[in-house]
């Protein structure tokens, strides 16, 4: 007879669990026969003792089995999906999905909301008037059949164990452990039905993974999980020491995404997204050079796909290009000459959250109009009095708030080099 206390004790003592033990515990937790306090103890035992690759694989598939699995076989071609482990100013999905779809590769993507200092793709899309993130599985599949792409909210019926376990991890200090992160991400990606998956594993001050060694281990674990169940999987380790691109905040990030989709974005983030698109297209057996991919931004093909998706999901395409309606804008200017040395992602993510651009808890309302737009990024030369950033707020911006912002902007005499993609793991 299997008992929860024996499984907890076994893992606490660093022993390897059987497939049956893992499945029994996960099924029992979803059914309500294994209580929160025992699952909390199990999560903490994993935190300290870890899991073997086989255990993580069994945990992932046991979680997948607790909900429905989406069958995308009605959509022709190799279906590709992408997941980021989270960051600040991460609007990659908004650009990457239509860019890949503009080459005729179907993208059926379920995304999440933001919590804490990280932003969610769904929140950004909901800042577009009328955009519907809740769609039935049938309409989701039909849209991808018709126009080649859709981005919707995760089905409530998908991976029920993950919803319960994630909420528990959040309040028991067991979020940042690789077996539980990997099983959470990959259970959802596997259940969502794509044939191939690109994983963006962020590393640095604004990410869950603070160092390259941990990021590499997480990336390799998730790639191995994907391959073990027959999904073509590639991971990229990307820098999250500073915010991605120029904007933090929902409406502001939509505007930046539109700039990039029109071929007018910053060179660094444009090149980064084209490199990700090249990997995603390769997963679908479509070989393209970065210049060929970039051409889809300049010729309007990627932008047309984005507008087509917005319209298909009830969004007002005319509202897309509307500027932020924030009531107050404060300009931040450089106080000395030099090079921008630091823009700590975590600090600016939390700052934007205080402006209303992010949630402290899931029930918080968002202010879609607020946030930050940077005019300069790490490594760039600045002169005294030059514009560094703008703060967008709907409450008067106090001198104290400006001072707090400035203390996180570091200017140095030495130029720092930044790489967006640090490593690729296939």
UniProtKB/TrEMBL annotation:
| Domain Pyrimidine nucleoside phosphorylase C-terminal stretches | 339-412
Q: What class of enzyme is it?
A: transferase
**InterPro entries listed in its UniProt record:** Glycosyl_Trfase_fam3, Glycosyl_Trfase_fam3_N_dom, Glycosyl_Trfase_fam3_N_dom_sf, Nuc_phospho_transferase, PYNP-like_C_sf, PYNP_C, Pyrmidine_PPas_bac/euk, Pyrmidine_PPase_CS
- Top-level taxon in the UniProt lineage: Bacteria
Kindly list the biological process annotations in GO that this record carries. pyrimidine nucleobase metabolic process; pyrimidine nucleoside metabolic process
Q: Which UniProt keywords apply?
A: Glycosyltransferase, Metal-binding, Transferase
Q: What is its EC number?
A: 2.4.2.2
Q: Which Pfam families match?
A: Glycos_trans_3N, Glycos_transf_3, PYNP_C
Q: Which cofactor does it need?
A: K(+)
Q: Name one GO cellular component term.
A: cytosol
Cite the GO molecular-function annotations of the record: 1,4-alpha-oligoglucan phosphorylase activity; metal ion binding; thymidine phosphorylase activity
Reactions accelerated catalytically = 2'-deoxyuridine + phosphate = 2-deoxy-alpha-D-ribose 1-phosphate + uracil; thymidine + phosphate = 2-deoxy-alpha-D-ribose 1-phosphate + thymine; uridine + phosphate = alpha-D-ribose 1-phosphate + uracil
Spell out the subunit comment.
Homodimer.
Tell me which family the UniProt entry assigns to this protein: Belongs to the thymidine/pyrimidine-nucleoside phosphorylase family.
Instruction: Describe its function.
Output: Catalyzes phosphorolysis of the pyrimidine nucleosides uridine, thymidine and 2'-deoxyuridine with the formation of the corresponding pyrimidine base and ribose-1-phosphate.
- Quote the PANTHER family the UniProt record gives: THYMIDINE PHOSPHORYLASE (PTHR10515)
Q: What is this protein called?
A: Pyrimidine-nucleoside phosphorylase
Species source reads: Streptococcus himalayensis
**Could you tell me the gene encoding this protein?**
pdp
